[in-house]
Write a structure and sequence with these properties.
Blueprint lengths: L2 E9 L5 H13 L3 E3 L2 E9 L15 E4 L6 H14 L2 E3 L2 H6 L2 H10 L7 E4 L11 H8 L5 H8 L3 E5 L9 E3 L2 H10 L5 E5 L6 E8 L2 E6 L19 H18 L3 E9 L2 E6 L9 H4 L3 H17 L11 H7 L5 H15 L2 H11 L3 H8 L3 H14 L5 H22 L1
Parallel strand pairs: 1-3, 1-4, 4-5
Antiparallel strand pairs: 2-3, 6-9, 7-8, 7-9, 10-11, 10-12, 12-13
Helix pairs in contact: 1-10, 1-14, 1-15, 6-7, 8-12, 11-12, 15-16
Amino acid sequence: MADIVRTIGLSLGADICWPACYEHLMRRLDLRVPTEGGTMRFEVERIYIEPFDLRRDCKYDVVIDRLTHWYHTSREWIKKAIIMNGLYVFNNPWSLQSMEKHTSYCAMIRLGIPIPTTWLVPPKAYAQSNPDIGPTLARYAKLFDLGRLGQKVGYPCFVKPYDGGGWRSVMKCNDEQALRDAYEKSGTDVMHVQAGVVPFDRFVRTIGFGPQTYNVLYDPDKPLHDRYTLDQEFIPAAEEEHLRKVTLTINAFFGWEFNSCESLRSAGVWHPIDFANPCPDSQVTSLHYHFPWLVKAYLRWSVFCAATKRRMRQTLDWEPFFEVADGGGSYEEKLDGYARIAEERFAAARFEEFCEKHLSHLDEVAWEFFATEQAKDAVRQKVAALYPLHEVEQFTELFWSRIQKWRTDEEALR
């Protein structure tokens, strides 16, 4: 019986560490999945940027995309391949292009999720290239009192771009003068003014990958390499489940199969504050201890999607979520309803069955791989790309030691 080949494409930018580890693990696994027509195996290939004919065939079954949120050529090739060739890609490129943080706040407020009070304010300055801007502002722009707005929102508050990402231009304001200073600095950016969640006793970043979720205690005041803490069991199981449902709801709503959700806990209530991150950090230099989980999550979801010929959902279809939102019941009851929609859209039960049957050895293979010189070299290469030469060995050893702690902890759970 013939081999059936599924091809997974990697659409990459500055990524170094996770693709290298992903490729090594795929070779070590050397997957052979029995099917009615033969044996299914998998090939992985990096995608190059080049001119393309709109009628050109697409050789890939699945593409893991890390470019379309900022690089137009790859985004438009992916759109073409979805429409014309039935390509499966995560994440949805149309949603990535159009659904910024502002839309995500509005949508989750509509679903009843406790988003902090948020205002949008017109930009402080305008580019002068559009001749219509002057007459438009003269006729229709209302003067507003930023100080009064600050009183309504409350202090501390945060001024940040409505479409921001990567902590770009985020400014904390403890009083009116700081708010006015932040607005003066904002230039042509359209900004949100969002109430701070104070006091809070937990800051958790939940990574979602298909139906998989993973909670990390996060410390934004630390240097980047220490923000993902190594703490374990920092919230009760019921709250872990709550954050799982919130993250799956957001991701399924927007068609984001790979996204992260940052939430603050205040007086026992979880407030999502930043959850439009549909190409989240995947680098060992920030994830360290948690990096092996992420690489395994990449592998599980991509292999599942390729093997099952998962079809791309080309429309977002929000109505089922709105029906739950408008149907009555408590917030937790509605969240249960949203999560059921998400689990169905992510084929959660089928995914778990597939992983148990065909990827049950992945944990052991990954545990062994992350002790090898190949894995350490992937860490070193990423460190060398980001750190000055005299710090490369120091930080390579730091991140490697944290991965070895992960291996020790994993072994203890067996």
